[in-house]
Protein: Chromate efflux transporter
Organism: Streptomyces kaniharaensis
Amino acid sequence: MSSCNPGYIERVSSPSAFHGIPDDEAPSVPTPVPAADGAGFTAVLRYFLRLGTWGFGGPIAVVGYMQRDLVEQRGWIARQDFLDGVALGQTMPGPLAAQVAMWVGYLKRGALGAAATALAFIGPSFLMVSAVAAVYSHYSGLSVVQSLFYGIAPAVMAIIAIAAYKLLRLTNTKDWRAWTISAVVFAVTATTGREPIYLIVGAGLLLILLDARPALRWPRFGNRLNGIGPLPLALGTLGTGGTLTSLGLFFLKTGALVFGSGLAIVPLLREGVVTQHHWLTQAQFLDAVAMGLITPGPVVITAGFIGYLVAGPTGALVATVAIFTPIYLGVVIPGRWFVRHRDNHQVKAFVTGATAAAAGALAGAVVVLTRQAVTDLPTTAIALATLGLLWRFKIPEPYVVLTAGALGLALH
């Protein structure tokens, strides 16, 4: 399940860190044993297919399931290999759970293995989102559907607000420069209603200049790795052509900038989908985000829902493939290099700046979108009640969204 929990977590040095257990109190981890003869790559794909279908609980929980099942119980992957994948996921753009799934496939069968595990893990949520989008596009004009999302929209805003707060705290800690970046991007987003990708890339490059300016030249792989940053800018200058081409280019560059958490993509999506291309209204966009929250899998699967509304089943496929392509490349291209150079100062500085900017944009998007979602006393009450409950209790987002939908039906 997509969650408001940030996909960018503190670097871990032991599996127990996923569960918040101190190392000295954690139970011992069984030494991984070789997989049984019958547990080949097909068994790995079956596992990720099941996980993609029933993997509710958010990115941290889903990665915890992988650790428990693949490392501790089955011994299909070595402990350090798994932790390397988590560290890679923390650094490269993209949702953490999907990145770790691709990493496992990459270790087993290289680039094709990563693609296969990605398909198995993401496929179920894509099919669910596409099916819901088909129903939504047909019945969205009905009063019952409008009433349903009358309650869902303010609840989604509360979920995004909690995500922004957690991401800000987790990313910026006590770094005043990161807080300054977040504040500037927040102000720009909240005031103008626009979230330019240049701010995110620029923030990453700024911290490289401040903290890790290269002496003469980048490390051998660094030149290629840091080319990922300008890539979205270059893509943005290409001709848009038809609708499918526009969808593909937009989601391709957006997927390269999902720093911080799955929900950090919301400002970038809103900027392109609502403001720039006018594919959806703000209300439809909030409905799309809600669908990403209540289905299993990463919240960026929202791209499939948006693609379907814009260009039918083909649009859903194009948008989903495009948004996951840079995420996939971020695993298979720098994967081995990253394991050897995970402490590269330029990479760490860029990620810190970009994630701080993404967190600020997410907080600013809360202000912009709330104007659309919270319009009267009932929606205000739903937003505040959801905010209070999520602040106090760990309630799975699907329950929150479905309950809010029921309230919408009763109140509207």
Q: What stands out?
A: The radius of gyration is 20 Å.
